[in-house]
Amino acid sequence: MTDSLKLPFAGEDIVRRLSSDLVEPSWLLEDRLAALALYLDLPIETNNLFTLYVDLRQARFAEIEPYATTGTASQIADTVPEGAAALIEVAEDKVVARALSAEAIAAGVVIDTFANVLRGRPELLRGALEGGSTLPANDKLAQFARSHAALGLLIHVPANASLVKPIVVRWAAGHPGRGLTSRTLIDVGENASVSVVEEQVNSDPSTQSESDKQSLWWGTTEVRLAQAAVLNFASQQDFGQGTVAIVNRHATLARDAQLNWALASVGAQIHKSRIDNHLVGRGSSVKQVEIGFGNGRQLFDATSYTRHIGADTTGDLLSKGVFLDRARGYYKGMITIERTATGTDSFLGEFAMLMSKQARSVTIPSLEIDQPNVRRASHASSVGPVDESQVFYLMSRGLPREIARKFIVLGFLEPVVARIPLGDAQDRLRNLLEEKWPESTETEAAA
After folding, report:
1. What does the domain layout of the chain look like in residue ranges?
2. Strand (E) or helix (H) holding 107
3. Taking the model in full, what pTM does it have?
């Protein structure tokens, strides 16, 4: 199949040059080339249920020049933010901060770039990355990141380590006409426990507002959880509305591992994401809450795949969107229960609120069940305006109509906010959601 995406910055010569500039070992170059072959062969969407709901027409890739080399700023902060166990921060094409607390150092936690890890402890990467098992082989966009990433970050938490405070990963992007393709690998050892807070912010709001060129952030989160490992991952995306954001999150869970996703997207002109959860080990579980809040002409395209492979696995997946003005949201999900997955308990819910007549949303929850012996396999979805009975109730208590509608929306989105494991980040997300409301100039009750 021909390349239907037509990225001007994709190709074998680019992949080879990236690998050479980064002084990568031959196995990693071969892995990049294998990913490139998949990228070139795959369509943008392989699932026939979702084919009609892919829209990248707003993305102007021809005007974007990705960073070909990345590096480290001459001055690196060595102070961990209050309430955090560690920090790594990337601004455009450079790592500008990296710091570990005494607790993290004592636990043997590693937070560094792929380039540095390959020089010092290459075994931490090769076993995870070689062969591409940490990304979906049937996703064109994931294979682009695997083949063309200019920067990689590793978070390694050894067996039996437990961090009370979260690790903060901060991405600042948005310079007009530039883009970054990156990968993040999170490897959590047996019986280890950690929380990660990812912050995606606009690197220079004033510069982007003066230019009509788009920017690009293209990244992955690749998670490996060993037996009885626990990861709480919270992300909040607030890129500028001139940014195209493309993200893949892929997790593989061993026996009794637990994964909690709490994902909030507020910014970007286009936010396209895919989450893959592979519950391989018996008794593994995933809880996933994802929200999007769009206004103007923003587009949120969120797809999730959860595959139950081991026995007695549990999935609880919830997606919510709120759309004002002419914003659009596509929420697509698939739960697959394989023959080996006896005793599965899985739920998928997708819900959207339309706050204007021009806003649009689609929800497509789906099930594929090859094992009848399950505890639960169900889904639910809805798209519609704010419940007028709730508005009436709050107005009867003295609130003006628009304030009542705002409170209902913020309450609708609160399940993600409450699961952010860092107080400052939680407050920041609440402020972002509050600020989003008055930006709309077209909001009216949906008919």
Report:
1. 12-439
2. helix 102-107
3. 0.93
